[in-house]
Amino acid sequence: MELYEKIKKFWQEAGLKEVDKDGLKSTARDPYMQQLNEYFIGNYLDSNDQVLDVGCGDGSSTDFFSQRVNEITGIDYSQSLIERALQRSICNGNFIQGDVLELDKVFEPNSFDRVISIRCLINLPDAKMQYRALENLFYVLKPGGLLLFSEGYKHGWDGINIHRQRNGLSVMNVVEYNLFFDNLDLEGFFQSRGEVIEFVGFGEYIYGSRVIHPLLTNGNVQHDSHINRVFAELQIKNAFSLNFSECSYAGVYVVKKDA
What we know:
Blueprint: H1 2-14, H2 31-42, E1 50-54, H3 60-66, E2 71-76, H4 79-86, E3 93-97, H5 103-106, E4 112-118, H6 127-140, E5 141-150, H7 154-166, H8 183-193, E6 194-201, H9 203-216, H10 226-237, E7 251-257
Helix pairs in contact: 2-10, 7-9, 9-10
């Protein structure tokens, strides 16, 4: 738990500033990847939905989703980020401080039509905690409801690093407090709780932003550059393409909970 407390402290301190030293939001340092998450998750939301956004951060994505649903609740363990989120005054939304590991103590079972998780569980320090959190996501999700899950995946991380090495680029190292999911283990868990309806991978965007971008700029990569914007637009246009699927260390799982 010592590492978990260290991670919590990091996000509490991150929430005290609107942007980091590079002018990027700490909760979404790659803004175009976040936009991809919002775009594809938004396609699975309905105007009648009651939605939970787990690990909502400063609420920017929650605000985006609120325009597509009946009611939305954002939850995050960082008080500083929740305070930023509350400043948004979303008319059909609310924000509360809480831990994904204790969702079953905060909400009744089968409370939400949709549960969203974007790069939240990746910050849990071990697999046991991650899968405990996943159990909680399904606990609060209604039977027949959708889990919209975008975290970090080991298969794609290994894949993009192979491409980088082939092109003379260095291997990307995993951030200290990130733990990627093994795709096979994750999908096995999903299948024990419901049906995987879709996986929308971001392989084209990742290849473009993590290989072509540094090659074009001699390693001077900026996450908010127009180069990444172009690759994000291409990813949307080629949503279900299998090109560079082996690089999809990010992407959205759509899982329907058993009735």
